[in-house]
Amino acid sequence: MVDIQKGQGSQTDLDLMVEAVKNVLAGETDLIAALANSSALIMVYLGDINWAGFYLRKGTELVLGPFQGLPACTRIAEGKGVCGKAAAEGKPVIVPNVHEFPGHIACDANSNAEIVIPLFKGGRVYGVLDVDSPRLNRFSSPEADALTKIGDLLSAFLERC
């Protein structure tokens, strides 16, 4: 495992975050352990975020999985909120201001920006990676690229488990 120090979201921190998740997933076979450590690493390296975690598809819902942050919504109906939109469309969704997103589900009143990355298994959306920030316009291309790489790593993990 790499040396872990609290990041501020620089490109170096983003690269270290992706590498740290890659290292955590190497040789791991347990989904909960992999997702728990991945959310912890995102919380450490990304900076200026208040929630990082996963929702996993169970039938027509997304159900809360491992996360870091305040307690969250337990179930999200398909297509609802930012997570539901990303799962339904199978592509990342970046919301600069969640208060302007129609149908936003407010689990933490301090969240102002959100990014959601879908995870795939067998060509279908298996779940989503959800990251929230108290800062408006928090997520730009570098963060989206790094989190998408993590989503790709996790999707590859899901394929082998």
What does this molecule look like?
The chain has helices at 11-25, 31-46, 81-89, 141-160; strands at residues 51-58, 61-69, 75-77, 93-95, 113-121, 124-133. Strands 3-2-1-6-5-4 form a six-stranded antiparallel beta sheet, sandwiched between helices. A hairpin with a 2-residue loop joins strand 5 (113-121) and strand 6. With 161 residues, it is an alpha+beta fold. The chain is globular and about 40 Å long. The two termini are 21 Å apart.
Biggest sheet record: 6 strands, antiparallel
- Average pLDDT reading: 93
Instruction: Count the E strands.
Output: 6
Radius of gyration: 14 Å
End-to-end Cα distance, whole Å, is 21 Å
- The helical percent reads 25-40%
Helix and strand string, N-terminal first? HHEEEHEEEH
Percent of residues in β-strands = 25-35%
**Lateral arrangement of strands in the main beta sheet:** 3-2-1-6-5-4
- The 3D shape can be described as globular
- Derived structural class: alpha+beta
Q: Outline the low-pLDDT stretches.
A: none
Helix segment tally: 4
Give a short overview.
Helices cover 37% and strands 26% of the residues. With 161 residues, the protein is α+β, with helices and mostly antiparallel strands.
Question: Which tags fit this structure?
Answer:
globular, 6-stranded antiparallel beta sheet, alpha+beta, 4 helices, 37% helix, 161 residues
